[in-house]
Amino acid sequence: MTRAYNFNAGPTALPEEVLKRAEKEWLNYNGTGMNVMEMSHRSKPYEEINHQAQNLLRKLLNISNDYEILFLQGGASLQFAMMPMNLLEEGKKGYYVLSGSWSEKALKEAQKIGDAESVASGKDNNYTTIPDIKDLSSLENGSYLHITSNNTIYGTQWHETPKNLSIPLVADMSSDILCRPIDVNSYGLIYAGAQKNLGPSGVTVVIIKKDLLARSKDSLPSMLDYRTHANNQSLYNTPPTLAVYLLKLVLEWADSLGGAEALEKINQQKAELLYHEIDQSNGFYNGHANKNSRSLMNVTFTLNSKELTDAFLAEAKELGFTGLNGHRSVGGCRASIYNAVPLEHVEKLAQFMKEFRTR
Ligand SMILES: *Cc1c(COP(=O)(O)O)cnc(C)c1O
């Protein structure tokens, strides 16, 4: 049985090494005689897994001690509401840059919590570029500025984040966390569901600057208050133990490759293979994203007719490629090439794209 050429948008491919390691430890984790799923989250072995996962993430993203790392549940979608519940201050605004469907959803949730508005939007050009914020000084009285660092559905990505902000920058990094080095110090809060670049679904990573924890109010339900999780090493209630364990294995794998710098190089190589094929196809394949906003993680493109698109997807499927359909809201094709997608699989796809076009 060979592994699928997995280009799913999420959940998606995990590193084969990680799956093999999990298989090896499946019945007997580290001499415990148990699967990680079977042990108490208060046991020493599990506390170690939890601790190691936090430490590895701290190392890989160079996160200083000014930040707490939390492992939560509810996905990025819960963070759309939980973040403003904690950070949006009375009489101030949450500012949002709209760069795709996920940022629209984040704004909509924040508006249920308090005062929030869009300060830049790429909607008029069908989210082909990351929009510019015209006047940064107008943000002064806000509680935070929210961006979506990678737009999974449209295939665009921020390549330079707003600088010299007077308010905390909050980023939804669900689909590009750890695809490249970042300067965590320029953010107040980062959140990401794990199921694209970090592991399986079920665990959501939140990286929050400690001083921002002072904004949370005692009236918040305990589970929705960041302080609860920060004060309990994310062990306040039963965590998603299997997901955190697999997250730890993925982080060990990333570390063994050379960390964020090494991953960025491979990711650039992978993305370049597909963008190159799009660019030299003379319009046979049309990239959705403008060149300066192209994503390293999600390559979106269309073919010139529905018949061609259908033929392309059907043949691809036949050859063992999965997940190449564009998101149901935009159509076309999308190849998600997250960290765990091997270079050889992307080479195979680029080769197929070329052969299909030539024919
Ligand atoms: C997938 C995704 C989400 C939604 O994540 P859930 O874990 O399903 O809630 C949010 N934001 C971005 C950028 C995503 O790619």
TrEMBL record:
<dbReference type="InterPro" id="IPR000192">
    <property type="entry name" value="Aminotrans_V_dom"/>
</dbReference>
<feature type="binding site">
    <location>
        <position position="152"/>
    </location>
    <ligand>
        <name>pyridoxal 5'-phosphate</name>
    </ligand>
</feature>
<keyword id="KW-0028">Amino-acid biosynthesis</keyword>
<feature type="domain" description="Aminotransferase class V">
    <location>
        <begin position="5"/>
        <end position="349"/>
    </location>
</feature>
<comment type="pathway">
    <text>Amino-acid biosynthesis; L-serine biosynthesis; L-serine from 3-phospho-D-glycerate: step 2/3.</text>
</comment>
<dbReference type="GO" id="GO:0004648">
    <property type="term" value="F:O-phospho-L-serine:2-oxoglutarate aminotransferase activity"/>
</dbReference>
<feature type="binding site">
    <location>
        <begin position="76"/>
        <end position="77"/>
    </location>
    <ligand>
        <name>pyridoxal 5'-phosphate</name>
    </ligand>
</feature>
<keyword id="KW-0963">Cytoplasm</keyword>
<dbReference type="InterPro" id="IPR022278">
    <property type="entry name" value="Pser_aminoTfrase"/>
</dbReference>
<feature type="binding site">
    <location>
        <position position="172"/>
    </location>
    <ligand>
        <name>pyridoxal 5'-phosphate</name>
    </ligand>
</feature>
<feature type="binding site">
    <location>
        <begin position="237"/>
        <end position="238"/>
    </location>
    <ligand>
        <name>pyridoxal 5'-phosphate</name>
    </ligand>
</feature>
<dbReference type="InterPro" id="IPR015422">
    <property type="entry name" value="PyrdxlP-dep_Trfase_small"/>
</dbReference>
<feature type="binding site">
    <location>
        <position position="195"/>
    </location>
    <ligand>
        <name>pyridoxal 5'-phosphate</name>
    </ligand>
</feature>
<protein>
    <recommendedName>
        <fullName>Phosphoserine aminotransferase</fullName>
        <ecNumber>2.6.1.52</ecNumber>
    </recommendedName>
</protein>
<keyword id="KW-0718">Serine biosynthesis</keyword>
<comment type="similarity">
    <text>Belongs to the class-V pyridoxal-phosphate-dependent aminotransferase family. SerC subfamily.</text>
</comment>
<feature type="modified residue" description="N6-(pyridoxal phosphate)lysine">
    <location>
        <position position="196"/>
    </location>
</feature>
<dbReference type="Pfam" id="PF00266">
    <property type="entry name" value="Aminotran_5"/>
</dbReference>
<comment type="function">
    <text>Catalyzes the reversible conversion of 3-phosphohydroxypyruvate to phosphoserine and of 3-hydroxy-2-oxo-4-phosphonooxybutanoate to phosphohydroxythreonine.</text>
</comment>
<feature type="binding site">
    <location>
        <position position="102"/>
    </location>
    <ligand>
        <name>pyridoxal 5'-phosphate</name>
    </ligand>
</feature>
<feature type="binding site">
    <location>
        <position position="42"/>
    </location>
    <ligand>
        <name>L-glutamate</name>
    </ligand>
</feature>
<keyword id="KW-0808">Transferase</keyword>
<comment type="subunit">
    <text>Homodimer.</text>
</comment>
<dbReference type="InterPro" id="IPR015421">
    <property type="entry name" value="PyrdxlP-dep_Trfase_major"/>
</dbReference>
<keyword id="KW-0663">Pyridoxal phosphate</keyword>
<dbReference type="InterPro" id="IPR020578">
    <property type="entry name" value="Aminotrans_V_PyrdxlP_BS"/>
</dbReference>
<dbReference type="InterPro" id="IPR015424">
    <property type="entry name" value="PyrdxlP-dep_Trfase"/>
</dbReference>
<keyword id="KW-0032">Aminotransferase</keyword>
